[in-house]
Write a structure and sequence with these properties.
By secondary structure, the chain is of the alpha/beta class. The protein has 4 helices and 10 strands; from the N terminus they run αβαβαβββββαβββ.
């Protein structure tokens, strides 16, 4: 279990867990952060992840800016906020089923593919079963992944995101005590559909 504080050693532990999730797409990683009390609308897990990844050079987008969240992340990470999806380094997504398109976010360029948005998506539950099949770097053969309430349209957008590789966005899913990631290099297929 990780206690949240500002020590470099603690931040390194948190960063390694995020790296484990990104390096093994679809793997659900334990991410327990019991001592943080973020403002309403930001889970302790999401707040910890953003504090670890963000700094004064990163910009954050969220659909409806909550003043408490903005103040909290400015104070703890020095991050700025933007109203433009394509200008965001990170996007806080609390209602992923309402995302119209992943292409509205920064996709990177061929010279700088790393200049894309990472979506940090709050979900209720996730599991390694269901109809979503993942393949690609970091996955031996394939793995199953499921996020409750995310339908075929969302996963079609994620599959289309991979088709642009090395451009595209990366996704980090956050739930109570867990994180998982689907980088743009991951092939996504809804089983039972061509």
């Amino acid at each position: 279990m990780i206690e949240v504080d500002s020590s470099a050693q603690n931040q390194a532990k948190i960063f390694r867990l995020i790296l484990e999730a990104m390096s093994h797409p679809g793997r659900i990683v334990d991410f327990k952060v019991p001592s943080l009390c973020p403002p309403y609308g930001l889970s302790a897990e999401m707040a910890t992840l953003l504090i670890t990844l963000c700094d004064f050079q990163t910009s954050i987008w969220m659909k409806s800016k909550a003043v408490g969240i903005e103040k909290f992340l400015r104070f703890h990470a020095g991050a700025t906020f933007t109203n433009t999806k394509s200008a965001a380094t990170y996007a806080i997504v609390n209602d992923p089923e309402k995302l119209s398109s992943l292409e509205e976010f920064a996709q990177g360029t061929h010279e700088y593919p790393d200049r894309s948005t990472t979506l940090v998506i709050q979900v209720d539950t996730m599991s390694n079963d269901g109809r979503i099949s993942l393949a690609g770097p970091g996955i031996a053969n394939q793995t199953r992944f499921n996020v409750e309430k995310l339908g075929v349209v969302f996963w079609a957008n994620v599959a289309a995101n991979h088709a642009q590789y090395p451009l595209g966005v990366d996704l980090i899913f956050v739930s109570k005590g867990k994180i998982a990631a689907i980088p743009r290099s991951t092939q996504v297929q809804v089983q039972g559909q061509d």
